[in-house]
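Data availability (excerpt). The following record was deposited with the supplementary files.
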Amino acid sequence: MSGERAWFGQPPGLTILFLTNMWEQFSYFGMRALLVYYMTKQLMIGQGSSSVIYGAYTACAYFTPIVGGVVADRLLGKRRAIITGGSIMAAGHFMMAFEPLFYPALATIAIGNGLFLPSLPSQIDDLYEPGDPRVGWAYNVYYVGVNIGGFLAPLICGTLGELYGWHYGFGAAGIGMVLGLLIYLGGRRYLPAQERRVTAAEPTGRFERRTVLVLAGIALSVTVFRGAYEQVGNTVALWADAGIDRAAGAFTIPMTWFQSLNPLLVMLMTPPLLRYWRQRSEGGRREAPARKMATGALMVGGAYLLLAAVALLADGRAAWGWLVLFFAVFTFGELFILPTGLGLFARLAPEGLGATTVAAWYVTIFSGSLAAGLVGTLWSRMGHAAYFALLAAIAAVAALLLRTLNRPLTGLLAAHQTGRTE
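Predicted structure:
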């Protein structure tokens, strides 16, 4: 695909994948921004049960890609899996507008997500010729698309739901998913013409034992990390409602707007951070991926320590500026760990098993979301300061686990790169 005119220094297909993913994430985060409030305020479900439902839903949404990735690699092909999965998800979002369909709607979204989620990013490598250095930055660019959708979602879906009715917010999320599908269909000519479709007669790569062990170690570490990380849409959102003074003069900031801070900061922080990493790499000081991820986990732990201190020292409700500072530190740490992890799983995928391997990355979101749901049940049983300190400790444990993987992961990446260039 080297003859195609580049868009923003990358293949045009990356822009199509970027925009498709942006609108899919708009639909997902739009619904997620409303979910815990909808359950506790409209459906009158208790906080503990709502936390478990929230964790179970996000877990299932990232469990179904395990099956969906295999289906995409071996049966449908990536394009058909994306179109089919996106259509199912759009239907589920529109079903959320009807209270009796609440649980079937959650299940429908999770099923569609299983086909869509691993198939889209696994197309990124197919856009580049072997050895193209741009692929190293492609996943950070792709991650910005995730967060543009995540930034817009609470502002649009959250505001509609909070001010005009929950069902308007859910309907807006469904429209976002439809827009993503239309962009993907309209930009198909920029995507790889030949898909890898694997049948029983076609040989594929296989997972080496060393690769499986290292990826399993990363998955375990990220699962622990997500037990703390995923609280931003759950217990941190509850604290933004009950523990934060949201007054800005005569205006009261809607509680869902704070969930836009994280993706907004991703968009603002990513370009300078990429320049910094590139300069370090050109100067021969490239940071090992496992160390980079461990650094990110420690930063997120530091953000939760900040909340613990604020909750301990605040007299009544805390000023909303502290929550903004929390999200700044939290997001900076996130950029070190999550795009790096996704890129590792994609780069270490055997031939013909791209969607399957990327699906394995989403298993960490499944297991981490289950852990986060369970950790969230402690919110009503602990003081807020102690609870946030617990989240900081969980993130620190994840950082320790990641540091132990530095040497085996560095060796595996070197061997993998040698194998690709031979």
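Summary of structural features: Residues 378 and 387 are 7 Å apart (CA to CA).
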